[in-house]
Automatic annotation (TrEMBL):
It comes from Nonomuraea endophytica. SUPFAM superfamilies: (Trans)glycosidases (SSF51445), Beta-D-glucan exohydrolase, C-terminal domain (SSF52279). It comes from the Bacteria. Catalyzes the hydrolysis of a non-reducing terminal alpha-L-arabinopyranosidic linkage in ginsenoside Rb2 (alpha-L-arabinopyranosyl-(1->6)-alpha-D-glucopyranosyl) to release alpha-D-glucopyranosyl (Rd). It is not able to hydrolyze alpha-L-arabinofuranosyl-(1->6)-alpha-D-glucopyranosyl (Rc). PROSITE patterns: GLYCOSYL_HYDROL_F3. Residues 579-649 form the Fibronectin type III-like domain. Belongs to the glycosyl hydrolase 3 family. This is Exo-alpha-(1->6)-L-arabinopyranosidase. Transmembrane segments: none annotated. GO terms for biological process: carbohydrate metabolic process. GO terms for molecular function: beta-glucosidase activity. It holds the Pfam family Fn3-like.
């Protein structure tokens, strides 16, 4: 293919380039030597299917390593680790002749009920963006493209192909877009996948503001925008808005409609050409399949990674277990792992480890086991419970594996509650009543409520969904072979009713209003200072860390502001471990309500016992700014900002303040007769002019109208001056208002 490949194509061929040939392939133009390329799900493994497969995760695909889904990776808080996963995904894609892997998903977990939360990293945009970028960089380092998805505001599954997410611009800019922006600008993904839903009434795949103004003009995206599978409603509108490639194939009729639109002058050919050229550039950079991958090495990597993702929520000292300890294992999930979610991301794994086998392997002996409940059947079973009770009664410690059955969460539908199945809850009580020490291990893609039972457990390990080697990783952590270092990427609330979007999820009558605005996840709980079960950023280790020597150094101001934050982290215990230092910024604002503090940077460090290290972070303008809804630009207000560094959004260890100058205020709009009295008075010279004009007759003995004196001024400040002039006692001539406004504007230099 040469640079002018486009010139040699007919109009029909150009149109053909902008839609798929099959479920997973783009159209080849053989006459012109343009091959087709293969796109595959993703993203925590390669889901390579035959061309006539399905995109629902139902049919077969070639075995590939199933790494922890994003819910797991998100909890690692470790971009280096995520990048290594990306590299492995890239290698497997190459080996399976896949040119673009469809991921990562960086949508924000707006509600814990979203059925697809297991495919997303976090409730926080910074964490999602940094980890998403790391995965893209890893994948693309192998010559394979990534497609960051689902752009944008795809935060629920209910009615996902039609629902309109009604979100104000500030909320989009501060919460739902930054992860995409970070990935696009830092990792330069080959593709962006547009979402199914509408955003403020317009389909995301036909949204010129999202796909062209924001994505290309503001963020400089140069790659291909692909539709989610079947997301295009009107092909011509989509091309016009900036969508380059419709997937999967929608048949030749759709291409013909594009040709017709160009011929009829309804679609500018330049737009079609620009999209076709971008697809050509994508095809040109795509690499043919090559090599094989080492399934054993990738399985070991999957285990290492999973070990960094599980989050130790609670531990009274029962963990780590000793190899000789009297330990029993209970729960069907111990031998039938739940390790990924259902839907298009479903991977056929190369191997599958379970907790029970791996614990026995590490302990080097049999451990007593009872399944305790059936999966996929929430009913209680007296026989299974009795068997579990007997097993637990004989053990000093019982590991109880609980979690969500596969059908409780998946792509295409949302959850309706946060509870564990009844039979699992009952089993926990039965086991705890024996007096054994209870260690709960959870497997779930979305948050489950723990508040009514975690008091009965000595330890709780939140395993999320950890991929095919998760069983081994859990065993490693339980026996102390690995020191847990995962941190919560989402809050575990006390109750579903406590979550910010509770009243507006999943919406009604085709619309979901994001009424909570920027107060999503911990931003909401922290604004209320409300109790939660476990806060964002929380996670225990088998050692302890100290924070000291916080130093904040500022250079420049306004958009040039750079703040260097350094802090010393010390491993205070007698075991090597990893800490995630989290930087939260509380910044002032005059015009809008802001979260109490927001995560702006983080770093995972490994420290030997007694060792310490100084971690440095660099913050910039955007880390202190908010998106001003009226001025429609990022703004810093003057005042004092606080920088907190700590181990969770609620465990802030050290803090420092700095004084911010604030962005330049734009020149105010000129005064008119309809401006309020307060606006007139705020204009330099406005008071003089009004005092001169608003003159009562001499017999009143007043020097000027009472409206210009306190407390009337306080009450009348919002009255437009044109209307004020009509009030008795204003003594203002309505006929002179235009002239007076000119005079004020002139004096103020406006
Ligand atoms: C999902 C995408 C996926 C695509 C292809 C859609 O249903 O939303 O995430 O990449 O199918 O399978």
């Amino acid at each position: 293919m040469t640079d002018n490949a486009l010139d040699r194509l007919t109009l029909a061929e150009r149109a053909a380039l902008t839609s798929g040939e099959s479920l997973w392939r783009t159209q080849a133009i053989e006459r012109a030597g343009i091959p087709s390329i293969t796109l595959s799900d993703g993203p925590h493994g390669v889901r390579r299917q035959p061309d006539d497969g399905d995109h629902l995760g139902v049919g077969h695909s070639t075995p590939a390593t199933c790494f922890p889904p994003a819910v797991g990776l998100g909890s690692s808080w470790d971009p280096e680790l995520v990048r290594r996963v990306g590299e492995a995904l890239g290698r497997e894609s190459r080996a399976m002749d896949v040119q673009v892997l469809l991921g990562p998903g960086v949508n924000i977990k707006r509600s814990p009920l979203c059925g697809r939360n297991f495919e997303y990293f976090s409730e926080d945009p910074r964490l999602s963006g940094v980890l998403g970028a790391a995965l893209v960089l890893g994948i693309q380092s192998q010559g394979v493209g990534a497609a960051v998805k689902h752009f944008a505001a795809n935060n629920q599954e209910t009615d996902r192909m039609r629902v309109s997410a009604e979100v104000d611009e500030r909320t989009l800019r501060e919460i739902y877009l930054p992860a995409f922006q970070h990935v696009v600008t830092v990792a330069k993904p080959w593709m962006v996948m547009s979402a199914y839903n509408r955003v403020n009434g317009v389909y995301a795949s036909e949204h010129p503001w999202l796909l062209t103004e924001v994505l290309r003009d503001e963020w400089g995206f140069r790659g291909v925008v692909v539709s989610d599978w079947g997301a295009v409603d009107d092909r011509v509108a989509a091309l016009w808005a900036g969508l380059d490639l419709e997937m999967p194939t929608s048949g030749r009729a759709s291409d013909a409609s594009v040709v017709k639109a160009v011929e009829a002058g309804a679609l500018d050919q330049e737009l079609l050409d620009a999209s076709a050229a971008r697809v050509l550039a994508l095809v040109a950079r795509a690499q043919p399949g090559e090599g094989t991958f080492d399934a054993g090495a990738h399985h070991r990597l999957a285990r290492e990674v999973a070990g960094q993702c599980a989050v130790l929520l609670k531990n009274d000292g029962v963990l780590p277990l000793g190899f000789q300890d009297s330990v029993a294992v209970v729960g069907e999930l111990a031998r039938t792992p739940r390790y990924q979610g259902a839907g298009s991301s479903h991977i056929v794994p190369t191997r599958l480890d379970d907790v029970l086998t791996e614990m026995r392997a590490l302990a080097g002996r049999e451990l007593e086991y009872a399944p305790g409940y059936r999966l996929g059947d929430a009913g209680r079973s007296p026989e299974l419970e009795e068997e579990a009770r007997a097993v637990a009664a004989r053990a000093t410690t019982t590991v109880v594996c609980l979690g969500l059955p596969a059908e409780d969460e998946g792509e295409g539908y949302d959850r309706t509650h946060l509870e564990l199945p009844d039979n699992q809850r009952a089993l926990l009580d039965v086991v705890a009543a024996t007096g054994t020490r209870v260690v709960v291990v959870l497997s779930n893609g979305g948050v489950v409520r723990v508040a009514d039972w975690d008091g009965a457990a000595s330890a709780v390990l939140e395993g999320w969904l950890l991929g095919q080697a998760g069983g081994g990783a859990i065993a490693d952590i339980l026996y102390g072979e690995v020191n847990p270092s995962g941190r919560l990427a989402e809050t575990i609330p006390l109750r579903l009713e406590d979550t910010a979007s509770y009243l507006d999820f999943p919406g009604e009558l085709g619309t979901v209003r994001y009424t909570e605005g920027v107060f999503v996840g911990y931003r909401y709980h922290d604004a209320l200072d409300a109790a939660v079960s476990y806060p964002f950023g929380h996670g225990l280790s088998y050692t302890e860390f100290g924070y000291s020597d916080l130093d904040v150094h500022t250079r420049g101001s306004g958009e040039e502001l750079v703040v260097r934050v350094s802090v010393r982290i010390t491993n205070l215990g007698d075991r090597a471990g990893q800490e995630v230092a989290q930087v939260y910024v509380a910044a002032p604002s005059n015009d809008v309500r802001r979260p109490a503090r927001e995560l702006r940077a983080f770093r995972k460090v490994t420290l030997e016992p007694g060792a310490s290290t100084t971690v440095r972070f660099y913050l910039a303008f955007r880390d202190f700014a908010y998106f001003h809804p009226v001025r429609r630009r990022w703004t810093i207000d003057p005042g004092t900002a606080t920088i907190h560094v700590g181990a969770s959004s609620r465990d802030l260890r050290v803090a420092a303040t700095l004084v911010l100058e604030g962005s330049k205020r734009p020149v105010p709009a000129a005064i008119t007769p309809d401006s309020s009295l307060a606006d007139w008075l705020a204009a330099p010279g406005g008071l003089d002019v009004l005092q001169r004009e608003m003159r009562p007759p001499a017999e009143t003995g007043q020097s000027h109208s009472r409206f210009l004196t306190e407390p009337a001024l306080r009450m009348a400040g919002s009255v437009p001056v044109r209307r004020l002039a009509r009030f008795p006692g204003a003594y203002l001539d309505p006929e002179r208002l235009d002239k007076l406004a000119d005079e004020v504007n002139e004096r103020a230099g406006w």
